[in-house]
Specification:
- By secondary structure, the protein is an alpha/beta fold.
- It has one domain: Alpha/Beta hydrolase fold, catalytic domain (Rossmann fold), CATH 3.40.50.
- Helix content is 29%, strand content 17%.
- The chain is built from 10 helices and 8 strands.
Length: 285
């Protein structure tokens, strides 16, 4: 796996870039973009960027200060093998020392997306797991001209997770800002002050993960993975039976993500949303 070092930029007047250690690299095919004249050479018409979530570093907190690929962001991973048949697959990793919203504003993500857009892909799909789904959503909201055509969020805590409310002294110091930004209170604050919405022209889908017949995946509840604001704009969902930690390495999620990446994602109407709410939440209205 060779990291991409990029020098292209996605510009926005909404917020200044955040300096944060990041890596954006080509997983399949493995490519290197050097600062200067080197550009990506697409193999397919579609590019997929995989964005990870939290990787707790309780015993090695210093490792959270550097970007590190997750096990499903490698060439041999089930998901990469599935989607690389008709897409070039990239990975994005980041130091987990700032809030999740600041990760979306990081200079490295802007520059990485700028390089991918400059390559001339017809489709650019962001796939984010857990906190990575929040990063993807925030990015397309703030940078609607970045070239993203689709977002697939897997087990994303849009409404927050109670696990993120743990006292700071019980967490790796370096990761406290990132983890606490995933709490229900922090996500509610972001939603309240959100100055931009998911662009209507960007296809958006959520893969909801549920362990057994529970109301979530042991980390994030179903209502958090599919909050009211996404329901109101008709963001469709599919359900996968798995836990939060196994989501990106299991067959059900790989199958659904591959289908969503390669197919057309259409927003639901009110009836579709109501039917899904009855199935997921047991509502009778």
């Amino acid at each position: 796996m060779t990291p991409i070092l990029v020098a292209f930029a996605v510009t926005s007047t909404l917020a200044p870039a955040v300096d944060l250690p990041t890596l954006c690299w080509g997983i399949e095919p493995a490519v290197l973009v050097v600062e200067g004249d080197t550009k990506l050479k697409p193999r397919h018409d579609r590019a997929v960027l995989l964005v990870h979530g939290l990787l707790p570093r309780v015993w090695h907190p210093d490792r959270a200060e550097k970007p590190e690929a997750h096990e499903w962001q490698v060439k041999e991973a089930r998901l990469v093998k599935a989607i690389s048949d008709d897409a070039d697959v990239y990975g994005f990793s980041y130091a987990q020392t700032r809030t999740v919203d600041e990760v979306a504003l990081s200079r490295g993500l802007r520059e990485g997306m700028g390089a991918i857009k400059a390559a001339g892909y017809k489709e650019i799909v962001l796939v984010g797991h857990s906190a990575g789904g929040l990063v993807c959503r925030r990015f397309v909201e703030l940078f609607p001209d970045a070239g993203v055509t689709k977002v697939v969020a897997v087990a994303a805590p849009f409404g927050g997770s109670g696990w993120a409310k743990m006292p700071g002294f019980t967490l790796p110091k370096t990761q406290v800002p990132f983890i606490h930004s995933l709490s229900p209170e922090a996500r509610e604050t972001t939603a309240r002050w959100r100055e931009a919405k998911v662009p209507s022209e960007v296809e958006f889908a959520c893969v909801l993960c549920r362990a057994g017949r529970g109301d979530g995946d042991y980390v994030v509840g179903l209502r958090s993975q599919w909050p009211d604001d996404l329901q109101k704009v008709g963001v469709p969902v599919v359900l996968a039976n798995c836990t939060h930690l196994e989501a990106m390495t299991c067959e059900p999620v790989a199958r659904e993500v591959t289908r969503l990446v390669s197919g057309k994602v259409v927003r639901w109407d009110e009836d579709d949303v109501a039917k899904a709410r009855r199935v997921l939440f047991g509502e009778r209205r």
